[in-house]
Specification:
The complex is a heterotrimer of chains A (about 170), B (about 210) and C (about 200).
Chain A (H helix, E strand, L loop, with lengths): L9 H19 L6 H15 L1 H6 L1 H7 L10 H20 L14 H21 L4 H10 L3 H18 L8
Helix pairs in contact in A: 7-8
Chain B lengths: L2 H19 L13 H9 L4 E2 L1 H9 L5 E5 L3 H6 L6 E2 L11 H4 L5 E5 L4 H12 L5 E4 L2 H10 L10 H27 L2 H8 L7 H8 L4
Parallel strand pairs in B: 1-5, 2-3, 2-4, 4-5
Chain C lengths: L11 H22 L4 H9 L4 H22 L13 E2 H18 L3 H9 L3 H19 L1 H9 L3 E3 L3 H5 L3 H29 L5
The chains are: A mainly alpha (about 170), B alpha/beta (about 210), C mainly alpha (about 200).
Chain lengths: ~170, ~210, ~200
C-alpha cells in the first residue's frame, strides 16, 4: 500500500491485450470473455441444487442436456481463472493488493456497495440478453469485425453517455 | 505524447494501412460471403430440389437427406414430411440447432408451405457459411400437388410426361401409404425419428463455433 | 493453419491450459491498466479519465488488424473461430441494460472479476449481483426474454461487407477515427481535470 506503482500506459496495455486476443483466437478459436463464466457458474450451481428444474427450464436445457458439456470445464472458465491469477500477480507487483472499497470520497460505503450490487444485477441480465459483455461480445466482436460488436459498442457506451447525467451524483 | 505512445499509434496506423492495401477478393478464401457473392450464389439454380427429386431420394432411403420443416410447431404436428425435424424459422439460429445446420455430411432440405420461408432460411444459412442446404421447390403445396395427388397428363403429352406421372403415382402410393402405416404404428418408434437430429459431424468444431461469451 | 484447437491440431487439455495462460495475460494487463479502479472506469462517462476508451480501442484495433492479416495470408480460418452472430434487437436492448449496470455499478464483468481478485469489496458485491442477474434472467427467461432474444437475427455479419466497403478500408478508417479520438479525449481530459481535482 505504501508504494503504489503507476498504471501502465493505456495504449501499450491495449496493444498487448489485442495481442492476447489474437493468441486466443489463433490457439483456441475463442474470444476473451467474462460474463460467459458467470453463466457457467449459475448453470452449474442450479444443476447441482435443482437438477430436475435444470432439465425442464428452457434456459438451462441446452446446457445440461449434453452430458459432456458440463458447463464448468470450459475454455472460458479456465480463461477467467487465469484472469483472477493475472490480476493478483499484477496487483502484488504494483502494491495494489488489499481489501478496500473503490469509490469517490463523498459517497458512503453503504451507497457504493448497494450501487455495485444493483449494477451487477443489470449487467448480469444485459449480458445474457445481449449474448456477451463488453469483453466477450463488444471487444472480441470488434476484433473479428462482427457487426454485433459495433452495435454493442454503440449501445453500451452510447447508452452510458445518455444516462450518465442522471447518475452523476454517484461519481462526481 | 510520450515516445511509446507514438510507437504504438504508428504500429496501428501502419498495420491498418497494410490491411487497406490488400484486396478482399484476392485473399485466402475463408470468410463469410460478401453481399455480391451472396447474390451470385442466390442466382444459381441448384439451390432448389424438386419434389420429384426429393421423392426419389427418400424412396431410395438416401441416408444423407435431412428434412427441415420451418413452420410453427403446431403446423408441423398436424402434417409434415416423414421423419422431418421441426425448426421454426424464428429459432433457426438457436444454439441447439447449430449441429444440424452447421455440418458437411448431410443434405439439408428446407421446406414450408410454399418456398418463401425456405428461401429465407437458405439465405441466412448460406450467409452463415453453412453448407449443403437446399430448398424444396414449391414447398408442401407443390409436393402435395405433384406427389400426393398427381394428375394424369393429357393424352397428347410426350412420353416423358407419362414416365413422370407413373413415377409420381408410385411415389404417391409410397408416401400416402407410409403415412397410414405411421398412424397405425402409433407414436413409439416414429416420434423418436422425428425429433432425432443427426449426429454432428465433428464435435469439437461445433463447440468452438457456437461457444464464446454469451 | 489456425485456429489450432478447433482444427484438432492441439488437444483439449492443452487448449484449456493455453486458455488459463491467456487469461493470466488478460487479467494482468487489465489490472496494470487500472481497470480495477472503478473511478477510472466511470471516468470515461464524465470526462475525467479516458483510460477505458484508450485501452479498449487500441485492443480492438490491434486484434482487428492482426486477425485480418492472419486470415488474409491463410494462417487463421475465420470460419472456425468464435464469431458473434448478429441479433441486433437483443444486442441493442441488452447493451442499454449493460450501460445502466456500468454507470450504476461502475464495473463490467471482466473488470469486476479482476477487481474482486485484488480485494475490492465493491467488485465482489458486483460479481455477486451479476450472478444474481444471470439467475434472474434464467428464471424469467420464458416470461420476458425468450421472444426478444432471437429477434432481429442477421447471421454472421461482417461490418465492412455490411457497409459495402473492404475490410482493409474499414480497419484503416477505424484506426484513423480512433487516433483522432485519442487526441480529442486527451484534450477533454485536460480541460475537465483542470477545472476540478479528481484525485483517483
Amino acid at each position: 500500500m505504501e508504494r503504489r506503482k503507476q498504471y501502465m500506459n493505456p495504449y501499450l496495455a491495449g496493444f498487448l491485450i489485442g495481442l492476447f486476443m489474437i493468441a486466443a483466437y489463433f490457439f483456441s478459436g475463442e474470444g476473451l470473455g467474462a460474463s460467459g463464466s458467470l453463466k457457467s457458474v449459475v448453470v452449474a450451481g442450479v444443476n447441482v441444487i435443482a437438477p430436475n428444474y435444470a432439465k425442464e427450464a428452457t434456459f438451462y436445457k441446452s446446457y445440461v442436456e449434453k452430458p459432456d458439456s458440463l458447463p464448468i470445464k470450459t475454455w472460458l472458465v479456465f480463461e477467467v481463472l487465469g484472469v483472477i491469477v493475472g490480476a493478483i500477480i499484477s496487483a502484488t507487483i504494483a502494491g495494489r493488493l488489499g481489501s478496500e472499497i473503490g469509490k469517490p470520497p463523498h459517497i458512503t460505503n453503504k451507497t457504493r456497495l448497494i450501487a455495485a450490487g444493483v449494477g451487477g444485477v443489470f449487467f448480469g441480465i444485459g449480458s445474457q440478453l445481449g449474448r456477451g459483455c463488453t469483453s466477450g461480445m463488444v471487444m472480441s466482436g470488434m476484433g473479428v469485425l462482427s457487426l454485433s460488436g459495433f452495435i454493442g459498442l454503440i449501445a453500451i457506451f452510447g447508452g452510458g453517455y445518455m444516462i450518465a447525467y442522471f447518475f452523476r451524483k454517484l461519481w462526481i | 505524447m510520450k515516445r511509446n505512445e507514438i510507437i504504438i499509434v504508428a504500429i496501428l496506423l501502419i498495420g491498418s494501412f497494410w490491411a487497406f492495401t490488400l484486396d478482399d477478393n484476392n485473399r485466402y478464401r475463408n470468410e463469410t460471403y460478401t453481399p455480391c457473392e451472396l447474390v451470385d450464389l442466390t442466382a444459381k439454380a441448384d439451390k432448389f430440389i424438386t419434389p420429384d427429386e426429393l421423392a426419389k431420394r427418400i424412396m431410395n432411403n438416401d441416408p444423407s437427406i435431412v428434412l427441415i420443416d420451418l413452420r410453427e410447431k403446431k403446423e408441423f404436428e398436424i402434417y409434415s414430411l416423414p421423419n422431418a425435424i421441426n425448426i421454426p424459422i424464428k429459432n433457426l439460429l438457436d444454439d441447439q440447432f447449430n449441429p444440424v445446420l452447421n455440418q458437411n455430411t448431410y443434405t439439408n432440405v428446407f421446406f414450408s408451405n410454399s418456398s418463401d420461408l425456405a428461401s429465407k432460411a437458405w439465405m441466412i444459412c448460406t450467409r452463415m457459411g453453412f453448407k449443403n442446404n437446399y430448398i424444396l421447390q414449391g414447398g408442401l403445396n407443390l409436393w402435395a400437388e405433384n406427389i400426393l395427388r398427381p394428375t394424369a397428363p393429357k393424352q397428347t403429352a410426350v412420353n416423358a410426361e407419362f414416365v413422370k406421372y407413373n413415377f409420381r403415382r408410385a411415389a404417391s402410393a409410397y408416401f400416402v401409404g407410409s403415412s397410414v402405416v405411421d398412424e397405425n404404428n402409433g407414436n413409439n418408434g416414429n416420434n423418436e425419428n422425428k425429433t432425432a437430429a443427426p449426429a454432428p459431424a465433428s464435435k469439437k468444431k461445433k463447440d468452438a463455433a457456437g461457444g464464446g461469451c454469451n | 493453419m489456425g485456429p489450432l484447437f478447433p482444427l484438432n491440431l492441439i488437444g483439449e487439455e492443452t487448449n484449456l491450459i493455453i486458455g488459463f495462460f491467456i487469461g493470466i495475460g488478460f487479467g494482468f494487463l487489465l489490472e496494470a491498466a487500472g481497470f480495477t479502479n472503478t473511478r477510472k472506469l466511470a471516468g470515461v462517462f464524465y470526462g475525467y479519465d479516458f483510460v477505458v476508451l484508450k485501452v479498449f480501442f487500441s485492443a480492438a484495433i490491434t486484434a482487428g488488424i492482426g486477425i485480418y492479416l492472419l486470415s488474409y495470408y491463410g494462417y487463421l480460418d475465420v470460419k472456425e473461430i468464435y464469431y458473434p452472430q448478429t441479433f441486433w434487437i437483443p444486442t441493442l436492448i441488452g447493451g442499454f441494460i449493460m450501460a445502466l449496470g456500468f454507470i450504476i455499478g461502475g464495473f463490467c464483468p471482466g473488470t469486476s472479476i479482476c477487481a474482486a481478485a485484488t480485494g475490492k469489496v465493491d467488485a465482489i458485491i458486483f460479481v455477486g449481483g451479476a450472478i444474481v442477474g444471470v439467475f434472474f434472467y434464467s428464471v424469467t427467461f420464458d416470461a420476458i426474454w425468450a421472444p426478444i432474444r432471437d429477434s432481429g437475427a442477421m447471421g454472421k455479419v461482417n461490418i465492412a461487407s455490411w457497409m459495402g466497403i473492404s475490410q482493409g478500408l474499414f480497419l484503416f478508417l477505424l484506426t484513423i477515427i480512433a487516433v483522432m479520438a485519442f487526441f480529442a479525449v486527451t484534450i477533454i481530459q485536460k480541460r475537465v481535470t483542470s477545472k476540478r481535482d479528481y484525485k483517483l
